[in-house]
Amino acid sequence: MTSFETENKKRSYATAITLAVLLLVIVLTCVPYLVSIALAAEPAQNAAEASPIFGVTIPSGYRRWELIAPAEEAAPLDELRAVVGNQTALEAYQAGKLPFPDGTILVKRAWKRKKSPEFASATIPGAATTVQVMVKDSKTYAATGGWGFGRFVDGKPVDEAQHRTCFACHEARAKGRDYVFTRLAP
Predict the structure, then answer these.
(1) In sequence order, what are the beta bridge partners of 136?
(2) What is the pTM of this model?
């Protein structure tokens, strides 16, 4: 083998090793991001878990999402609420971006208010009441401002009549904020 061939072989090996390391870095960088997307958007196992009209499901992993804002609902509901959002929602809120981009998912968890047994002046979550979901997809939900809605009690969607009220309420009260009531808590 000539010195030219030996040098060429060394360059080929060096290039192959460099490409392998680069590929490994790309994979290690992208995998966590791809896993978070998969967890955030995992569909329900069957259609019975989807909301009527919109086909929205409770997103897998939503309990690990970041808090957007807490809220308290007065009588007659008497609820404590917490709105959480996926990464797309959080980034849009932080950037002050309206309308929200497609892929935004907001989940409102609600519980009956209950006096704390340990601290008389405190209110704590009691029994869970609902999980409400908003999914932004401007093409699929064009007729409802780009949003699909789901309201669930004990993990099951409520009836179609209740789902028909979702957009009307959001349109009447929050149209100027892309139909979203919740603002990012400071």
Answers:
(1) 147
(2) 0.75
